[in-house]
Amino acid sequence: MIKSKTECRVLYAHTDKMGVVNNVRYLEYFEAGRNDFLRKIGFPYTELEKINTGLPVIEAHLNFLSSAKYDDVITINTFLNKLPSVRFTIEYEIYCGEILIVTGYTVHAFVSLDKMKPVRPPANFMEILKRNFI
Asked: Number of structural domains, the chain?
């Protein structure tokens, strides 16, 4: 398993008329956690793009347990529980303080950016994951 923790503050623009975070924004928080995860393991998304590799989301699932509001600090825990093949799943937990408010996952595929066809994970990316895997 590889995990990372990312904190961010809820912007006013992320809330709806009821003053709570709009549901679609949690996918953006998943993305923030995922990008920070890649940065922390030493292979930011920009490095994947430099080698013509993309990681599109091909499936997403969210469980809403509670909500966050404007100016709350949320913590996004991001987990990789299994080494990737052509497809892989990243899991998330979002907390507002000590309260778990959202769980979920995204499924990704490695694709060549020029042809948008599935490819194997880059060897140097896999090497970094294996070094960090617990």
From this structure: 1
